[in-house]
């Protein structure tokens, strides 16, 4: 079986495909990626087969205070639609050269869905967020209508007939989470394959001062790679909060923009950290509720303090809180005292850690990348049988 991953230039959307790609390769299949080649090489390594795709040369920076329907409209108009239409010719060229049996298409790389529909190929959706499975747009019919009209325009410009939702394959949707974390599910998604997180070791030469870690409880504080513009105030408050817990806590604060220049002695700052290597050594995580960070943390049974900023993060943060695995804060209002008290609570009260460990067990039971690989083999089986009969 030959599998082509179609992905956007976003860390959290590429990382799950690396674990799945490794699982498929170990089972004797051939895999390749289509996307921004320079970006992909950072994550897949030099040995991976990568097809370069054009991406928009200029992307308008989203205002830090943009929220709700306005943020959603901005995302579609300034990123999702231009990305799909820029990538589409190169995705089709990659298909022509690689001749895949199946495409695995990230929700935000809809060029893959358009290409699959144009060429009649089976495709699976790679759902790297669980937000839409709970229908966050419930009660906003005009927003739903606008999204559908936007996709209709994309299909029309690509000469694709029908009304297929480009975000969800009619064949298979791989959700890299579990029902235990998602909670109440929108009935429209009752056939989603919840395979759990796809986490594997990935190339990460990021240096880290391991020798500075001591015996105190350790807390990782990270707002991800895409929120430097919005995170300075929160990170400063978090550093102050950790200083007030210096007798018992040591913190690692990820500050991509390098704006937090003065921190207490118990806080280690870095513009980037080797997160997968660091997580087994920490006791709790403070984050923005990005899906990757949440799932990677919960995979280690770590309780969370979540302060969502935008996009799918409020939905995922609520999932964490509803599951009992952490405490949700309001990003724009959380001061040092709020962060200090929330961190102390998840460290001291066993209920949050117990819930996080239950979710970790649900991740293991779901099967991860191996379960996703099996689902893709099932999807491609009719094609393989057809080839044998020929």
SSE blueprint and pairings:
Layout: E1 2-6, H1 11-26, E2 30-35, H2 37-44, E3 50-52, H3 68-98, E4 102-106, H4 111-119, E5 123-127, H5 141-157, E6 172-175, H6 179-182, E7 193-194, E8 217-222, H7 228-243, E9 249-254, E10 267-270, H8 275-278, E11 284-287, H9 291-299, E12 304-306, H10 313-322, E13 326-328, H11 336-348, H12 350-366, H13 368-389
Parallel strand pairs: 1-2, 1-4, 2-3, 4-5, 5-6, 6-7, 8-9, 8-11, 9-10, 11-12, 12-13
Quick structural summary:
This protein is of the alpha/beta class and 390 residues long.
Protein architecture, described:
By secondary structure, the chain is α/β, with parallel strands linked by helices. It has two domains: 2-196 and 367-389, 3-Layer(aba) Sandwich (Rossmann fold); 210-364, Glycogen Phosphorylase B (Rossmann fold, 3-Layer(aba) Sandwich), CATH 3.40.50. Helix content is 45%, strand content 14%. The protein has helices spanning 11-26, 37-44, 68-98, 111-119, 141-157, 179-182, 228-243, 275-278, 291-299, 313-322, 336-348, 350-366, 368-389, and strands spanning 2-6, 30-35, 50-52, 102-106, 123-127, 172-175, 193-194, 217-222, 249-254, 267-270, 284-287, 304-306, 326-328. Mean pLDDT is 90; it is low at 385-390.
